């Protein structure tokens, strides 16, 4: 079984999340990766929804601000309800470490219902998942794809081609099953790799994650296919579609800052020296 991002520990401050090796980032030995941060916040948001007993609602938007470096040290995630109504619920979550907030998230749940009869345009990217018999890169739990090279390891994507990433679920906490929302919310952080991976490796670090969901993903893995990227003066913004083996289920956007001096070689997830 894939190792989880965290294990839990009871302390005088409550239940703490203890980062495991899977939570380590390629940006530095002491940094926690965005997948782990977003997953912990998503877990807290879902726990809050269970507390208020709203199984009638489904998550449709997930936004994370990564405003301080999260370290590989004990942390805690908590969530509060901002607004609850008959057809919606807005939840805020924070990740706290060493007495201060290092990341925050906002989640919107809506009540699903019957689609209206009118027709509206629906189109765009329709990415295909990898063949079922294609083995993932075991150490990274993912595959990379470009139209020129097909599915494979990161070496196929270290160029200026448009990228797609397919990523399997990673448990958030040891002993807990991964929910579909945790899968989508956590893996959404790899959109930065899909959007910003280039000929010199990953030279941009994302400051946020934004995910919009028409439905929850089906299965143990999801993909993100880059649809647009714009860069100016060391700032990059990008968009991607989220898909599973059923089809496209959402979209993602991010904003990132250039960090060429600490560029990451995604084949090993170590800084390029």
UniProtKB/TrEMBL annotation:
<dbReference type="InterPro" id="IPR049449">
    <property type="entry name" value="TesB_ACOT8-like_N"/>
</dbReference>
<protein>
    <submittedName>
        <fullName>Thioesterase superfamily protein</fullName>
    </submittedName>
</protein>
<dbReference type="InterPro" id="IPR029069">
    <property type="entry name" value="HotDog_dom_sf"/>
</dbReference>
<dbReference type="Pfam" id="PF13622">
    <property type="entry name" value="4HBT_3"/>
</dbReference>
<dbReference type="InterPro" id="IPR042171">
    <property type="entry name" value="Acyl-CoA_hotdog"/>
</dbReference>
<feature type="domain" description="Acyl-CoA thioesterase-like N-terminal HotDog">
    <location>
        <begin position="34"/>
        <end position="108"/>
    </location>
</feature>
């Amino acid at each position: 079984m894939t190792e989880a991002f965290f294990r839990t520990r009871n302390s005088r401050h409550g239940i703490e999340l203890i980062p495991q090796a899977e939570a380590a980032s390629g940006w530095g030995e002491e940094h926690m990766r965005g997948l782990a941060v977003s997953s912990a916040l998503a877990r807290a948001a879902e726990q809050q929804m269970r507390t208020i007993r709203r199984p009638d609602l489904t998550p449709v938007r997930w936004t994370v601000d990564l405003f301080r470096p999260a370290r590989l040290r004990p942390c805690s995630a908590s969530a509060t309800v901002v607004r609850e109504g008959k057809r919606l619920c807005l939840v805020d979550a924070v990740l706290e470490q060493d007495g201060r907030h290092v990341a925050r998230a906002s989640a919107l749940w809506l009540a699903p219902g019957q689609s209206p009869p009118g027709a509206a345009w629906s189109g765009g990217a329709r990415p295909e998942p990898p063949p079922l018999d294609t083995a993932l890169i075991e150490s990274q739990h993912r595959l990379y794809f470009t139209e020129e090279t097909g599915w494979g390891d990161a070496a196929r994507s270290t160029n200026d081609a448009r990228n797609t990433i397919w990523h399997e679920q990673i448990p958030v906490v040891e002993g807990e099953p991964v929910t579909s929302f945790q899968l989508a919310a956590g893996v959404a952080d790899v959109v930065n790799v899909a959007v910003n991976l280039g000929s010199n490796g990953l030279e941009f670090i994302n400051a946020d994650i934004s995910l919009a969901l028409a439905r929850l993903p089906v299965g143990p893995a999801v993909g993100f296919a880059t649809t647009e990227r714009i860069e100016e003066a060391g700032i990059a913004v990008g968009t991607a579609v989220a898909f599973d083996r059923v089809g496209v289920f959402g979209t993602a956007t991010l904003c990132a800052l250039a960090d060429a001096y600490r560029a990451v070689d995604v084949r090993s997830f170590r800084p390029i020296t």
